[in-house]
Design brief:
alpha/beta; 7 strands; 28% strand; globular; seven-stranded mixed β-sheet; 4 helices; Rossmann fold
Length: 138
């Protein structure tokens, strides 16, 4: 387990870029933390490091956004907050992405669907330390 302190958005993005270098096709990341703890900012850093040129925003209202990456791989960013059960996740096809080795899946609020997460899921915890500081534990 590795832990980092982030004192601003730029730190969070740099940490995410470091994590991105270790990702492989088929990886599933579960981002756990309170509202405002830096999860979406982290995804922005991951996406940038993976080659996404589009602006990355929270998929809160659409639940899932796909971003094409080089080599026919895609980054799938999912906000599970509005899902009420694992069945909701299945109904939008999320479970299908778990077996798609041409996707890297990043989940916010994964605790809503923990029963269907693959065993290979990597958890990243975001802790609020102060108004400007977060601890990110991988």
């Amino acid at each position: 387990m590795e832990s980092f302190l982030s004192k601003n958005e730029e730190d969070t993005i740099r940490i995410a870029q470091k994590v991105a270098r270790s990702l492989a096709e088929g990886d599933v990341l579960a981002l756990v933390g309170d509202l405002g703890s830096g999860k979406t900012t982290f995804v922005k850093g991951l996406a940038s490091a993976l080659g996404v040129s589009k602006t990355v925003t929270s998929p809160t209202f659409v639940i899932m956004k796909n971003y094409p990456l080089p080599n026919e791989v895609q980054l799938v960013h999912v906000d599970c907050y509005r899902l009420s059960s694992p069945e909701d996740a299945k109904s939008i096809g999320l479970a299908d992405y778990f077996s798609d080795r041409k996707s890297i899946i990043v989940l916010e609020w994964p605790e809503k669907i923990k029963e269907i997460l693959p065993s290979r899921t990597k958890y990243i915890k975001f802790e609020y330390i102060s108004e400007t500081t977060r601890r990110i534990t991988i």
